[in-house]
Automatic annotation (TrEMBL):
InterPro entries: RNA_pol_sigma-70-like, RNA_pol_sigma70_r4_t2, RNA_pol_sigma_r2, RNA_pol_sigma_r3/r4-like, WH-like_DNA-bd_sf. Residues 120-170 form the RNA polymerase sigma factor 70 region 4 type domain. The lineage of its organism: Bacteria, Bacillati, Actinomycetota, Actinomycetes, Micrococcales. Belongs to the sigma-70 factor family. ECF subfamily. Keywords: Sigma factor, Transcription, Transcription regulation. SUPFAM superfamilies: Sigma2 domain of RNA polymerase sigma factors, Sigma3 and sigma4 domains of RNA polymerase sigma factors. The keyword Acetylation does not apply. It comes from the Bacteria. This is RNA polymerase sigma factor 70 region 4 type 2 domain-containing protein. The keyword Metal-binding does not apply.
Length: 181
């Protein structure tokens, strides 16, 4: 239960923070368009709004650090924007490096992502998407049927019957003389 003293403390905190809040709101109103243009000149246009949003989050989190002087506040906000942009670029470099490393590993690792046999690839493509996924999870990824059921969030019995049906369909597609029952 909130007591009178707690309410008074909250009201006092709101009064103290109110000038800071007003100062941040005014600075954001003045500088948001310029910050967005700053990002549009330095990053993909699609990323500019996200970068602005990230900058404004930092500004609000560090509102107490916003200088009183309008020109100093502008420079401070652009400094925040520059650091947000640098962080974004470092993240992009790391993501590209990781993607390159994963691509290189995928090219040299043993194993096959898809079947080499074109008839098997066609037969898999003709299966219901869930059935094809069950086959791939069991035979390429090494999952048990129970694991597949948990992964796909389906009952184990459903996965077992779909797996049996998918295998029979593949067998028939690969060897038309096979009788499906």
């Amino acid at each position: 239960m909130i007591g009178e003293a707690d309410r008074a403390d909250a009201a006092e905190a709101a009064r103290v923070e109110d000038p800071v809040r007003r100062r941040v709101e005014d600075a954001v109103r003045r500088e948001a368009a310029a910050l967005l243009a700053y990002f549009e000149r330095r990053a993909d246009r699609a990323d500019a709004a996200d970068l602005l949003g990230e900058t404004l989050l930092v500004v609000w989190r560090r509102a107490i650090s916003l200088p009183q002087d309008d020109e100093q506040a502008r420079m401070w906000m652009f400094g925040v924007a520059r650091r947000v942009l640098a962080t974004s670029r470092r993240g992009a470099v790391r993501r590209h490096a990781l993607a390159d490393r994963l691509r290189a590993e995928a090219l040299v690792r043993p194993g096959v992502a898809e079947p080499h046999d074109p008839s098997l690839a066609d037969a898999l493509a003709n299966l219901d998407p869930i059935d094809g996924e069950i086959i791939r999870l069991v035979h390429w990824d090494g999952f048990s049927l129970a694991d597949v059921a948990r992964h796909l969030r389906r009952p184990a019995g459903t996965i077992r019957s779909r797996y049996a049906r998918a295998r029979a369909t593949l067998r028939a597609a690969l060897d038309p003389s096979t009788d499906i029952r």
